[in-house]
Design brief:
This protein is mainly α. It is built from 22 helices and four strands. Helix 2 packs parallel to helix 6.
Length: 475
């Protein structure tokens, strides 16, 4: 069904096909420039790579290392790629790029399914140059996030396909089972996809009305339980870890979270970091951009309300704003809302919203307004694209310089025979050691050294962390 819809997308853009292909190719190639073949430099990618190595060796974990709300499905995929391409840093980067490429394509495809060709084309343009956060994830494996990027639009697309089949009078029983399985599997992989699943169920309930409670719902639930069964099995046989995932007792005051979101997480989301800006003009331009984004969102929201009031098709608006507001609300009232106020990484739990963030302003491209009016409204995104290009240009620059100086010989294989620690420990016949989670150097520190060393010395030496470590047993 997905292939059929993809054919409709391509054929429906006959007069704009070349432009769409150009945008998509630029976006894919630009993301590929993050695939320089160096070893992971932070603990999260290293822990993903390390767990994938153990899966490759026969381990079968149910959770991502130390995280009871995320599954290791992405690491199983990396382990399969290890079988094909070998255990190396290049394989890890290729996995990250593949997930990034699929996310880009599926986001554009979702825009087409919801609003048509004009919105799809504009989404492809706005999402063509990713910001630093997404560019980093295009080259470093953080499978627990990256696979969730792919699954989020996929859940929406399969829900739309089910509605299409129901409208056309075709059977939806098998689709109901498959959609339930996909939802349960996605929820096991990363529970932050929960708001997307909830929006899909709500849309089905509103659209199908009484039909919602027919046998297909039972099949959907059965499929969901099958997809989520690894977690259920673990909780019933080992430890009830699910009870600690819905903790709201430590949540910040909702209005404090909202303030932190507007002043900290939202700017980071659009790659604006006020703390690093010394030029007041740039600060004012950035604030104007954020206000403009808010105005664009408000315009599209009002248009959606108008369509619902006139009893016209509001499905696309319902999906976009239902997911946007549902995700923010659930995150804000949970204990994860405190992340909005943290300066280092405030967008960890709202990063999935990139699925709809570019589509909402792109909807304006589909309106039958005068061209100059649309250009004025969308002009601030020129600033955004330029800003992204400036901040992410070091990726293609590093990609080019690495290939020029070392070629693909810079690929690190695991275990790394050139690692000096491996040579030292082997010389003294040592098999294990202790190392702190952070290695302090001058005014800074390198986090997760134990993960990096365990990865580069995989199977030869084991380093344990003597401090409190939440990523056991792979650290």
């Amino acid at each position: 069904m997905l292939n059929k819809r993809l054919k409709i997308l391509i054929s429906g853009l006959t007069e704009q096909k070349s432009l769409l292909i150009i945008f998509l190719l630029i976006g894919l190639v630009y993301r590929f420039s993050a695939v320089y073949p160096s070893s992971p430099t932070r603990f999260a990618p290293a822990s993903c790579a390390l767990q994938s190595c153990w899966i490759y060796e026969g381990d079968r974990p149910i959770f991502y290392s130390g995280q009871a709300w995320m599954g290791p499905a992405g690491n199983y995929l990396i382990a399969i790629m290890y079988k094909i391409f070998g255990i190396s840093s290049l394989t890890l980067s290729l996995f990250a790029w593949l997930m990034s490429a699929l996310y880009y394509l599926l986001t554009v495809f979702l825009a087409f399914r919801l609003f048509g060709k004009g919105t799809a084309l504009c989404t492809a343009l706005l999402f063509m140059i990713p910001n630093v956060r997404l560019m980093y994830l295009a080259g470093q494996p953080r499978s627990h996030y990256e696979l969730c990027f792919v699954l989020t639009p996929l859940v929406f697309l399969m829900t739309l396909s089910l509605l299409d089949r129901f409208r056309d009078g075709k059977t939806v029983l098998l689709y109901s089972l498959l959609l339930g399985f996909l939802s349960g599997f996605a929820f096991w992989n990363n529970m932050s996809i929960g708001p997307a699943i909830a929006v899909c169920v709500l849309v089905l309930w509103i659209r199908l009305k009484r039909q919602f409670f027919k046998p297909w719902l039972l099949l959907y639930i059965c499929g969901g339980l099958i997809g989520f069964s690894p977690v259920i099995y673990y909780n019933l046989t080992t430890e009830m870890v699910l009870t600690g995932q819905a903790n709201v007792n430590n949540a910040m005051n909702f209005f404090s979270v909202l303030k932190a979101f507007i002043t900290n997480a939202l700017p980071y989301f659009w790659e604006i970091q006020f703390r690093k800006m010394s030029n007041p003009v740039l600060v004012y331009v950035s604030i104007a951009f954020l206000v403009w984004i808010g105005i664009l969102y408000l315009i599209v929201f009002i248009e959606g309300v108008k369509k619902a009031w006139k009893k016209e098709d509001w499905l696309g608006y319902g999906v976009l704003f239902g997911y946007l507001m549902g995700h923010l609300l659930i995150t804000s009232v949970s204990s994860y809302g405190k992340r909005f106020a943290e300066g280092s990484n405030p967008i960890s739990y709202i990063i999935n919203l990139y699925t709809v963030a570019f589509t909402i302003p792109a909807v304006i491209a589909s309106y039958k307004w005068k061209v100059w009016k649309k250009l004025i409204l969308l002009f601030p995104f020129c600033f955004y694209l330029v800003n992204n290009s400036v901040h992410t240009f070091h990726y293609p620059k590093l990609f080019y310089s690495t290939l020029k100086e070392k070629g693909w010989s810079s690929v690190t294989r695991y275990p790394d025979p050139d690692n000096p620690l491996l040579g030292f420990f082997s010389k003294h016949d040592l098999k294990a050691g202790y190392i702190g989670r952070s290695l302090h150097a001058g005014s800074g520190s390198i986090r997760g050294m134990n993960f990096l060393f365990n990865l580069e010395c995989f199977g030869k030496i084991s380093f344990a962390d003597f401090s409190s470590e939440r990523y056991l047993p792979y650290a």
